[in-house]
Amino acid sequence: MNDDTRSEMQHAPDFSIDERDAVYRAIFTRRDVRREFLPDPVPDEVLARVLMAAHHAPSVGFMQPWDFLVIRSPAVKRRVQALYRQANEEAAKMFEGERQAAYRRLKLEGIVEAPVNLCITCDRKRHGPVVVGRTHIKTMDVFSVVCAVQNLWLAARAEGLGVGWVSIFHESSLREALDIPHHIMPIAYLCVGYVSHFHERPELEKAGWLSRLPLEELLHFDGWEGCPDEGGEALRKAVREMTQGRD
C-alpha cells in the first residue's frame, strides 16, 4: 500500500465511491446549452430542487445576496431576446474579418426555446454596508451569487436539465425589461430546460473558437514565479495522468 492510498483510506469521505463519481460526472459533463432545448415543461418540484441547491451556495458573511426571477412568459422572453440581439450585433462588430464571420455563426442563446428562464440577481445592500468578509474586497457578494449559479448548474445537470448562461446584454436594459430595482444587480440570465442531448465537448471548443487550457500550465507554487518542489512535481504528474485519462 503506497502513501497516497493509505492517506485516502485514513480520510475516507462521507460519500460512497459512486456518489463521489457522480459529483465529478456532473462537473465534467456540464455544458452551456444553446441549441438543444426541448419544449417539455420543467416540473415545479424539479425546478424547486435546483433553486434550493442554488440557495445553499456559500456566501460571504452568510449574506445570501441572491434573488431568483423565474420567467415563463413568452412575451417577456421575446422582450429579453430583442435586447440580446441588439447587444449581440454590437458584439459582432468588435471582431474583425473571419473572426467576426465565425462569431456570427455561433448560437449564443436559447431564450425563447427554453421553457424556463432565470435571472439571478445580487442585492448589494442586503444586511447593510458592513458585511463580514466583504470589508475589503467589495465584490465578494457578486462572487457569492456566481457560486449560487454554479450550484444550480450542477444540480440541473444531475436532473438532466440543460442550462445556458446569456451574458450579452446591456445591464441597464435587462434591469428595465424585468422591472428590477435600481440597487439590484442582475448577475446571470439563464435558459433552463430538458435537452435532446448534451455535447461531448463545449460547443465553443467544437467550433474551434478556443481550446481548453492545460491545467498543468496554470499551476503556480508558493508564488507566481515559484518553482515546484518534489511535492509540486508530483502534483503536476498526477494532473498529467488525469488529463491523459480524459483524452
Descriptive notes:
The protein is α+β, with helices and mostly antiparallel strands and 247 residues long. The protein is 44% helix and 13% strand. It is built from 9 helices and 4 strands. The chain has helices spanning 3-10, 17-29, 44-55, 74-92, 97-105, 140-158, 171-177, 203-206, 230-246; strands at 66-71, 116-123, 161-166, 184-194. Strands 1-2-4-3 form a 4-stranded antiparallel beta sheet, sandwiched between helices. The longest helix has 19 residues, at 74-92. The radius of gyration is 21 Å and the shape is globular. The chain starts with a helix and ends with a helix.
Radius of gyration: 21 Å
Within the largest sheet, what's the order of strands?
A: 1-2-4-3
> What is the global morphology?
globular
Total strand segments = 4
Unreliable stretches covering 5 or more consecutive residues: none
SSE layout:
Blueprint: H1 3-10, H2 17-29, H3 44-55, E1 66-71, H4 74-92, H5 97-105, E2 116-123, H6 140-158, E3 161-166, H7 171-177, E4 184-194, H8 203-206, H9 230-246
Antiparallel strand pairs: 1-2, 2-4, 3-4
Helix pairs in contact: 2-6, 3-6
Describe the structure in brief:
By secondary structure, this protein is α+β, with helices and mostly antiparallel strands. It is built from 9 helices and 4 strands, in the order αααβααβαβαβαα. The two termini are about 30 Å apart.
Name the descriptors.
44% helix, 247 residues, alpha+beta, single chain
